[in-house]
From TrEMBL:
It comes from Streptomyces antnestii. It comes from the Bacteria. Keywords: FAD, Flavoprotein, Oxidoreductase. This is Acyl-CoA dehydrogenase. One of its GO terms (molecular function) is acyl-CoA dehydrogenase activity. Residues 261-391 form the Acyl-CoA dehydrogenase/oxidase C-terminal domain. Its cofactor is FAD. Residues 6-118 form the Acyl-CoA dehydrogenase/oxidase N-terminal domain. Pfam families: Acyl-CoA_dh_1 (PF00441), Acyl-CoA_dh_N (PF02771). Belongs to the acyl-CoA dehydrogenase family. The keyword Transmembrane helix does not apply. InterPro entries: Acyl-CoA_Oxase/DH_mid-dom_sf, AcylCo_DH-like_C, AcylCo_DH/oxidase_C, AcylCoA_DH/ox_N, AcylCoA_DH/ox_N_sf, AcylCoA_DH/oxidase_NM_dom_sf.
Amino acid sequence: MDAAFTAEQDEIRRTLHELMDKRCGPDDVKAAVATPAGYDPALWTALGSDLGLPGLALPETYGGVGCGTTELALACEESGRALAPSPLLATAALAAPLVLALGSEGQRAELLPRIATGALTATLAVPGEGLATALGLTGDNGGDWSGGGRAGGIQARPADGGDDGNGWRLYGQADQVLDGHSAGLLVVAAHTGGFARSRTLLFLVHGDGDGVVRTRRTALDETRPRARIELRDTPAELLGSGDSDEVAAALAVTGDAAATVLAAEAVGAAGRALERTVEHVRQREQFGRPIGSFQAVKHRLADVYVQVQAARSAAYYAAWAAGAEGGGRAGGLALAQALEALRTAASEAVQLHGGIGFTWEHDAHLYLKRATGDELLFGPVHLLRARAAESAELFARQEVTV
């Protein structure tokens, strides 16, 4: 593994760092989350049409930049540092890879160039709270998490009684859809086949299509807008060939890459929370001296620094592994370490900022909510680690011959 970044990768980081410092300060974040979209459209235009960030990991054939998971992770580390609210994660890390992996040539040619420029935002909609399971991060995604049996979850049936993929109808509900209230395209996981041919497939649904009811929900972390999606006999187009095994495999690969991007994003947020805390303890005085000069405070911040750097190394390794042949899948494990580091850094930020750290006016609570919200949506940490250990057969039972 070569730990050094290329000149192009360093330029991506520098450009995003400068843009976020200029356009996405704390006041900008609070103003953006209060809008109906939940993000700043002008900033999204800069990220999309100007910089091509949503297409960073898409092939040039479909209007993308032709880079990989590493570049997208580095970009998201900078957006995470600013806690920037945007549909980048849902569009570029969840929906676009599935369209690329499973879509027909016509579907790719129609959707991916618009996604690459930010003209079309997209997201992945799964029923209930099963996003982490669907992505294979906390359990096997080969089950009936999309709504097995005759009811529950999201159900799909052929519109004309056939099964040719040209016309489907969906009905059901997804309660925790990232950026679901504003996405132009929904990649919906639905159950079909009843008991005889029970399977989970993916479908393409227009965000404002017939029978789609979208409601933005109150979220713990307002920088991660979520929505409830209700599908009422909604027209849908099958994504892919209808092979449930291919769908499960594509979701697992997408999940690992998304976990890597999320890990880098969490590391960026944790690093910034630590920076702001260090700045504060250098200025805040108690008993006639800066509180940062006290040994106890130094030790606490040193522990946070080590944890953040370890999480950053894990995220970078996962990004390298995602693009290396035979590199394996380390995204889930990196995400667990990054979320833990962010939670620690945010908790220490609240504590060491003292009274102001507990107020709504200060920004410390935003980092704590990001850590908690991401763990609720993509974790929890102990299940991420358990799944990683299971996938690696770390505790596989060995037969002993006597």
